[in-house]
Amino acid sequence: MELSSSKAMLLVAALLGIAAAHSWTEETRRIGPKGDFIGPPGYPRKYAPESRDSYSVWLLPPNGGLNEFTPDLLAVLPTKAGFDESSYHPQYPMLKVAPGDFAAIFYNENGHVSRAGRDNPEKPINRGTVYLYGTTKNDLTGLTLMDVHLKWTADGDINKGRLLATRNYDDGQCHEVLPDTGEADGILTWRKEHITKVEGLRCQSDFQIPKDVKPGSILTVIWVWDWPSMNTVGVAVPPHTFKGKTLSGEKRVSKFELYTSVVDFQIVDPCDPVLGDIKGPTCASVPLNKKNIVRFDRTLPAVNRSIEAQLVHPFMVHVPDFTEDPNLIPLKPLIGAKNPRFPLDSKILDAQYEYFTLGGKAIPTATAIVTATAVATVTAPAGGKNAVVTVTNVVPSATYTTFVTRIRD
Ligand SMILES: *[C@@H]1O[C@H](CO)[C@@H](O)[C@H](O)[C@H]1NC(C)=O
Predict the structure, then answer these.
(1) What is the pLDDT of residues 258-300, one digit of tens each?
(2) How many domains does the chain have?
(3) Percent helix, strand and coil across the chain, each rounded to 5?
(4) 209: closest CA among 111, 142, 134?
(5) Which class for 241: exposed (0-12), middle (13-18), buried (19 or more C-beta within 10 A)?
(6) For residue 202, is it left (φ>0), alpha (ψ between -120 and 50) or beta?
């Protein structure tokens, strides 16, 4: 039997008792009407399962260079910048999606979530911020980090570049396989028991494919993980500037560390047979009352579902100032904590439940309906089962207003 690459990766990490010192995107899936994964997986650009590490990592600023971002730094690994027929091996195609679909991008936490607390206390509590930038201009040759990062905004033209989502790298559930030596932090064991029920689970960045991308085009997503070291313990999210300073000018970053990956999505007609039974939300045959509705089923096993909070909140780290929403940081009790004890106590660990109930205290087993009428950013809705919540918010830097409704089943 052939192990899936992610299993093999987890196994290798477990056997060696170590983890790679970085992350990159691994796989993509389409998200269905229950918040479940549907259809075959897709892959990142120039996916190479046998040598993913050396072949996939793009660290900025580079090791051994200056501890600062300079304008010449390229946005993506140069061997992955170009786009042609060699970009996708037939065995590892890009994901086919329709405009308005939700999709997941997977990556391994490699200890950066479950072992960061004790080993790397100077890292931010959200374990870094993930930015998803989209463009239908697929050749990224010569594009610099500064051309894209903190420059493409939520209201950007999709052909020129748009910020599609911001994510906390810690998605609230991912964890490595337990090493033979056990774990010090307690996060892995708690998640395995209470959320995932499996030995190891990949992290995911979920997002909505823009409605205005044209069938026949290819959406290129640049996945940016900003993971600097802070000069103090307990900082919620990295500051938003290339200078590592807060909005008020306070220096926060002691060492910059940022990784990027490139993932493409083939945009098909919303009614295309290739999508199987579940068509895109704008397909005319989809009944009006079913359009754009994700009836999120919280009873699905974690391995089979997306993350509700990510479907409801396109910008989990606020735009345009990139400050935190503490309620969307799974380990939020660690924010501002200067000297947490490990393993973490149950009050801190149990707070992670709230992330899965959108701020409520209930055990995450209810079925909620998330109606997304457009790409949205929202404030945290009240939790609880069967709550009728309408949330409206305006993306500060954008020209559109959006609505997300959670309604009674
Ligand atoms: C759930 O995920 C597992 C692991 O990927 C897979 O083997 C299984 O078929 C999935 N089940 C459903 C109902 O999708």
Answers:
(1) 999 999 999 999 999 999 988 888 888 766 655 556 777 778 8
(2) 1
(3) 20, 25, 55
(4) 134
(5) middle
(6) beta
Q: What angle do CA 293, 297, 300 make, to 5 degrees?
A: 140
pLDDT, tens digit, 9 for 90 and up, residues 18-72: 334 677 888 999 998 888 999 999 999 999 877 665 567 899 999 888 999 999 9
User: Is 377 domain-assigned?
Assistant: no
Tell me 193's DSSP state.
I
The answer to whether position 373 is within a domain reads: no
Name the E strands within 304-351. Answer: none
Mean pLDDT of 168-191: 94
CA–CA gap between residue 280 and residue 48 (Å, rounded)? 29
Instruction: Select from 154, 130, 137, 283 the least CA-distant residue to 219.
Output: 137
Token digits of residue 53: 């590490």
Give the count of beta carbons closer than 10 Å to the beta carbon of residue 407.
15
DSSP H or E stretch at residue 167:
strand 162-168
Going by alpha carbons, the residue nearest to atom 10 of ligand 1 is 304
Residues having CB closer than 6 A to ligand 1 are 303-304
Whether 375 is covered by a domain: the verdict is: no
Give residue 60's identity as a one-letter amino acid code. L
Atom of ligand 1 nearest to the CA of 4: 5
Helix (H) or strand (E) holding 368, with range, is strand 367-372
Give the number of C-alpha atoms closer than 13 A to the C-alpha of residue 246, restricted to the C-beta side: 12
Q: Which residue has its alpha carbon closest to ligand 1 atom 6?
A: 304
Closest by alpha carbon to 292, among 105, 28, 98?
Answer: 98
Band (396; pLDDT cuts 50, 70, 90)? very low
Centre of ligand 1 from the C-alpha of residue 297, in Å: 15
pTM of the model as a whole: 0.85
Query: Which domain covers residue 58, as residue numbers?
Result: 9-291+301-366
Cα 304 to averaged position of ligand 1 atoms, centre (Å): 6
* 38 CB-near residues (< 8 Å, 6+ apart): 29, 30, 31, 32, 276, 278
Distance CA 288, CA 275 (A): 19
Please spell the DSSP secondary structure of 112-135, one letter per residue. TTTSHHHH-TTS-TTSSEEEEEEE
16 pLDDT tier (thresholds 50, 70, 90) = very low
Residue nearest to atom 4 of ligand 1 (CA): 303
User: Is 232 inside a domain boundary?
Assistant: yes
